[in-house]
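Researcher: Quick one. two chains, 353 residues in total.
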Amino acid sequence: MLRIIANALRTGQVTRTLERLEAQAPPATKGRPALDPARCDGNGACEAACPTTAIRLGVVQPDGQRPFVLDYGACVFCGRCAAACVPGALTITPDYALATLQRDDLILRVSVPSQVAKKGGD
Amino acid sequence: MRNPDAHAPQSAGHTANYPLQILHAQAASSQVTETGHTRPQSAGLSHPTAVGGSLDTAEVERAGEALQKTAWRLFRRSLHIRQVDAGSCNGCEFEVSALMGPYYDAQRFGIDIVASPRHADLLLVTGPVTRHLHRALLDTYEAMAEPRLVAAMGVCPINGGVFARSYAVDGPLDRILPVDVYIPGCPPRPQALLHGLLLALGRAEQRLVGGRWLTRGSGDLVPTAGSRFTR
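Model:
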């Protein structure tokens, strides 16, 4: 018993304060995918790769643009879209603090150029 | 200990500092409104929605302290959470217990998980709301006292996630309960959860008018069409 107490006193504090821990998320942390609409060619590979249909591409408009919808409320941060993206428009960022008060704030709606209009698009 | 004016917002509409802005707003004016969700529409930003950002350690500390201060004012003591697993895969539960564990130690910010909905200020829902747990979730919500905040944790209650469109799922949660804050992630990191809880407290503050809570009552309950419970 005394040995246990002595041992406990000798060991001291084993927990660390948070300030001394890693400040940022680990480098391998996968956060939200970010889209660079300028690099996107609208080929739809990301839509096919997404397991939760968080990414949806609409039909090609007459002006050659395609609506691109990314729902962060459905994205599971798996990174398959970024891996499937040939032009490198989708990249995985370490951003994870995504909480919002409105459901609609989680949905990214942009228009991307489409190079596959002749193939019928969607 | 820390002067809130020292963290006054410097630059508005900067996505990288988005959580920080919320914290600043919270610390300075103690009011998080929809104006906190400035939508950066400038051409240089590839992400026009309100979301995005991460918290470093100092920001987590500030988030926690702001949360503690607001909870003290709103609830006189602390923020008590009742967590309901509505068909979750338990990934989110791991993050909740990580937030409460010795590493993140959210209890120092006055947050606690309680065992009864009657003691709780906030209902933390994980999982896609399966048919089986639909009724348990509604009963839990009914048992809570006002102000009862509802937080949807993870993509499952928000959208269904990988369980979306299953025959056994009654969700998403906002078709069943009025959701105050959406915390996406699969699962969200503990810091993201802390950030979401801070937003939820800002929402609670809006409902405190003249020292009285604006109650929502049961009239806001939206029974899901086609669920067995409502039939």
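The first strand of chain B starts at residue 79 and ends at 85.
Researcher: Thanks, that's what I needed.
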